[in-house]
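User: My collaborator sent over this chain with a note saying "see what the structure looks like." That's all I know about it. Can you take a look?
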Amino acid sequence: MSKNRALPAITLVLGGARSGKSLYAERCIKNISRQPVYIATAEPGDPEMIERIKLHRERRGSNWETVEESTDLVGVLKVHRKSAILVDCLTLWLTNLILADHDVEGSVSKLALELRQAEGSVFLVSNEVGSGIMPENALARKFCDAAGQMNQLIASEATSVVLVTAGIPQLLKAP
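Assistant: Without extra context I'll predict from the sequence alone. Here is the result:
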């Protein structure tokens, strides 16, 4: 990232499952924009996920533009480059890429490059999976490795990195 060019705020919001990271990111972006764009990467594959998606939509309210995209995150970011954006969540996007046998490393690199082109603020929510035990199956280990590498790369591009634990945000990287 060029230090000479003024860039919008790119914020990576990390946390464990159900830690409050999405709610934190939603509150932050509401303070920036009256009509933010919410990029949802979840696929409503089962009744429980359908209910989670419904609750997230209700909590956000009607002033959000919601774009559902499970794999082409970079394409959606290009279209909404000038908007205030919340991506929720990178780890679901990563899961979708792995399960669809996409080039994960290439996709994450393209995401990092696209973030440099953002003209509006971008908040990216991602699970911190590195604090748990090492999974015993190969697919889960592949996911943990890819998630850790993705989070490190996006954190290096981000202006700010926040870790949310039990609903409490902790600033890890400040502008």
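A starting point for your reply to your collaborator: Confidence is low (pLDDT under 50) at residues 1-7.
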